Amino acid sequence: MQNCTDITEIYPEGMKAYLINGAQKTGWLPVDYNMASLKNSIYSRTPRFDSNFDILSVTGFIFLIKPSSTWLNVEHDIFYREHGLNMTNYILSIQKLGSVKYISSPELGFLQSLSGCINREVNLVFRFLDKALSDPSTNKTYNYMLSNLTFIKTIASGIMVPKNYIWPVTSDNYIQLHTQIVQEAHNAGLEIYASDFSNDGIFPYNYSYDPLGEYLSFVSDGGFSVDGVLTDFPLTASEAIGNPLIISHNGGSGDYPGCTDLAYENAVRDCADVIDCSIQMTKDGIPICMSSIDLLATTDVQQSKFCSLLSVIPEIQKKKGIFTFNLTWDDINILRPKISFPLSNYVMLRNPRYTNHGKFLKLSEFLTYAKDKELSGIMITIENAAFMAASLGFDVVDLVTTALSHAGYNNPTTTNKEVMIQSTHSAVLVKLKQQKTQYKLVYTLPLNIEDASDSSVAEINKFADAVIVDRKSVFVESSGFIVRKTNLVKELQSAGRFAVYAQVFRNEFVSSPWDFFSDETVEINNYVLLPRSMKSVEIGGLVQTLQDKARSPARAPALVLKPSDVVEPPLPAAAAAAAAVPKTAGYSSPRSDAPPPAAAAVTAISSTAAACMDMAVLLAYVVAGV
Description:
Layout: H1 7-10, E1 16-20, E2 23-27, E3 40-41, E4 53-54, H2 58-65, E5 70-73, H3 77-82, H4 87-94, E6 100-105, H5 108-114, E7 123-127, E8 134-135, E9 140-141, H6 142-145, H7 149-153, E10 158-162, H8 181-187, E11 191-197, H9 211-216, E12 228-231, H10 234-238, E13 246-247, H11 261-269, E14 274-281, E15 287-289, H12 295-298, H13 329-334, E16 361-362, H14 363-371, E17 377-381, H15 385-392, H16 396-406, H17 412-415, E18 418-423, H18 426-434, E19 440-444, E20 449-452, H19 454-461, E21 466-470, E22 475-478, E23 481-485, H20 488-495, E24 499-503, H21 520-525, H22 541-544, E25 559-561, H23 563-566, H24 597-606, E26 621-623
Parallel strand pairs: 5-6, 6-7, 7-10, 10-11, 11-12, 14-17, 17-18, 18-19, 19-21, 20-25, 21-24
Antiparallel strand pairs: 1-2, 3-4, 8-9, 13-26, 14-15, 15-16, 22-23, 24-26
């Protein structure tokens, strides 16, 4: 009970040693205590619920919850009988309560003692444990029992197996080909249930930390379906998502290095509606797709011959970096991409077999690739435009619009693709608005904004068609719990004429509040209008169940968006090409034939070479409240 209660604090001297199923076990076992002694249980996922709840007896659970169907799992029957407790008699005594429909046990002898005595509507299920272990009632290993399913059928109506019996996993955490156990069980007339599912466990990398994706692989995948699953998170196993607009985040950057050919191909295969390109500039004036202007974040440049180019450029970031405009496009192609690990503090890696795979794309290549794919649109992100113009001599807005025109995106009716241009800087979108562009202009609000004044929304209305908000601006969190839902989305949609998107969603279970059960699909469902049956707990309701001593201190007042946060001076004109690279970069290209920035930009824009892509996943922006 050390695993699920605070018994070590209440009975520190209670540890004993017992022989269980032929093995010596040391700990605090329930046979040494009565129900009055066992009061406080621990919900191990967050310590804030420790000592909050009582442990329930089976009858207490049935009377309190009144379930239509109950599954009881009985283990260590032989051990209990050795200590004067008869589990067979106990189960037979409670079957009159009516809701018990399934009884499972890893001891076939226990199930045999119930067979013929239990109500016919109760299903007996033999539970398989680790293949190397033995069933103490038969002294046969569970691996041996797998070859005797027809004998098991004479006692039980079904079997329960760990999920890795069906989809084995390699030592480096990738799934292998499925086994034939589902078909073999069905051929023997047995139902088969898969167990050991949880949203916050260790997932094979093939599932991209998506628990729903794992469940789906056990249903009609490979020509078989299990008859049920046993999980710590039942909502995930039964959920269905609506139809929000899904925009990738640097392509499928959850599986491959962001903004590479592999990431974009994977995003398309995973049915993203829109794929995105964050614009950066090279030294020779070529606009490229890359998630960060700092190559330290996206490549192995620190292990390359360019590692001496470290510099600090305050207009971009306070820390040292090696920037895309320090290197030519050919220089960057020498480097290896690097996958992002935004939650590396939790030792949650992403697809380590492909950490450095993929090829970066020029904007022209990205546009060519997206043009014939089944997408509703593309999103182009422009940042640091004022710095690029004043210090590097690059008019990024003009370079982007020219590239879109050359690629045939200037007429949405012929390309059948919506083009969205996103920026955190209003000056970028104002310039595009003044050019009477047909593209959808998307303004990204600052972080931590929970409210917007009418005057600030009026300013945004002058230049934007849509707004992106951080997901924490929709549901306010404190210590991992949601404390309330803001009115920001409603205000933006009613006072403005905006579509509203929320960002950034990640599959890793530690990225979402406790209220969403460690399931990214549950979280996304709460950002769109869904039937009540698909809701999780009431927003802000989970934190109310905490005892006062477990709650976090009161939060600081919410930040309100003001006009001064939105209005910016116009973008400066592009400086002369001679000033294109700041002296802090201190690097001259080894290429003797490198053209000046302007000429290189024209060459890149006219290029229509399509990149060969491969594979991706991970959700980024979701329509909020529509």
